[in-house]
């Protein structure tokens, strides 16, 4: 089917022949120019002088000697004038960062007001009550009265609320702001796009110097649809002056049917404005041609791209010189999944792929580095420190080029010190890229220049190492160009701005950068956004993201001009988006033979899960041949496979176990209890040596709270242990608790008990928790006074024998006992616990039952300490006590079986039974053929190895 642009080319060549070079061809975007030039070349068949090609913005801008102001120049100009107006009203100035979101809306409104030739003074007039409306708008229709009255009702009934009053004051300010803003820009030699439109629309025939360039030809407007009021007026004037031709891409299917929203603006252009369509009266392609439509309902956002290989199978082997297939991304977030899906070659044949949307800088590693720099600079400005998270990201970023040795050195040092925040000066001492990257911004003018220094350093290093990728090189160039442009714009405006706000502006500006990816614009499979398809035609069309809310969009954008006022003045409203979206889809389909709609059927916070209403409309009335497909992603679950680690046939395991038997390695009580609770955990931890990676976090883990408590109790009793402990001595020492807690906190968290620091946030909470725990323990100790402390944090070792394969074997156990007391001649092992440990137990055999529910780790550990201490010291009748700080004020400190405390004769009766069961468990550890998982899930609920053993 002949493309629209080919028909345009044929008609223009027939009309103008050799005079074509005197024409100006104007599109609504740049993309169609290459296609039209190709059609000209094919038709003329020899070298020729090309006509001039413009986008509508470029064409209008060329009519004036003024430059077009970019957004940031507009913002700073607007902000300056706004504060002047506030000063005149004797109101406080508004800061840049607070004004910025308002400015974006105001500037958008101003531009729309100009483009649609709206009288700004009337629009922003204060509509205090209905009588004012009736007086000033007596030319309006009853329907327009209703729109205005409906809007103003909320403001005219009763007393104004403060927010409403502020809004009304701002609205009153708008006419003066609008006029002063445009005057100030013009004084600087600048106009906005909207003001250029208004300037031309006053009477374009007066701009003879501009339009006389095309006296020998015509100004040809191709493929326009929705026109602003300024465009409509300019087009009409040019037609009346016989200066212009119009080629509208229309189909009678939607043009002649007033119920079809797709033809809304074309009907206005042709029927109301009287613009002549050079292609009027053509046969309806929507009705006469065959259209095969495939609808794909898929589950998931990225899944939409994953079916492309099925749809594009024939195109991968196509030999067409000009691309006949397009993948349209209605949802542009699908670009990366699309690129990941379409292969680069099949069976040795390279796939021609052209992506016109551009690769966003914000998705690249370059922006990641820039964003990291901006974030680090904010931290340096605020605290003269940088968070560990940001330093780690810098060290591991692929563009920093730091050696693995350097990364490991710095990260290891920081992990050892557990530094949540790193001093800025310490980072500067590393020199090289560190010095450039972490150089502090001392002036808002230096935000851009310092960032350029960082990028230059990285770019030079990558170029020198010859590791710079093509796409990264293009992104670097584009980023540096944008930063240089920002520097020029900022130079006269940001001297007194806050540095964080300038950082914010740079970040926002860089987020909009994109570069074309690759490919020949005419060949192969084309990937583009819906707006880029204007004027283009393809035999095969695939639209991804064809969801309601995406096509058409569900929001017209932010504006201070309410819907009712917009309707009165003919400004765009939400329904316009429906008509524009419908037209873009319909005109893309009318010449296509094979049409594929893909939409996401899953409902989440981003998508409705419904197909676009345009699809529903086509299904109902078009008569196209529809085929429906649904991609169901099966949820497959694998049958549980029990993971068993074979000991007997694994030399490494046998060698490691033998080290315990040879006393080259020793068993800690926690290792033994881990084996009892879940034998396979023991393998991963103590045999395979798989440890949880150490991380730096501002959040203190539960085990660290316990370590801090142990340290504080050690410091507390260190001096007191030289004599008998009395209640008076404890009471006197309590005064030092806050200092001791800080010392303990620093020792555990930062490996330096004497460091001085300011505690904040969660750290203060932890200090308070430890303080409460210390006082609970001391309250208990006061009830036990007087007593003597024998040792604190004492290391003890002992051997324990057990039968192994018919022989006697033994292992060495060791541990650190929190405290050993003597009271009334009884030696007590004191173990502090901050968790949810229990004092109760069922019986001794159940303590060692790996598949049981009555394992008591705390009891096993304290009895092991008791056994080891008795072996070490030669004492008997040593008693285990457990200080569970959360419950000891209620439950006491003695283990219990039923109602019987584990002390005295009962304890001595239990000890041999405990040792017998322990020996059985050790025999199992070294003799059983497998390491297996416990049958009771609670026994490994908090295991870090769960994913490794199939649970």
UniProtKB/TrEMBL annotation:
Pfam families, per database record: PDDEXK_1 (PF12705)
All copies of domain PD-(D/E)XK endonuclease-like, residue ranges: 667-877
Protein name in UniProt: PD-(D/E)XK endonuclease-like domain-containing protein
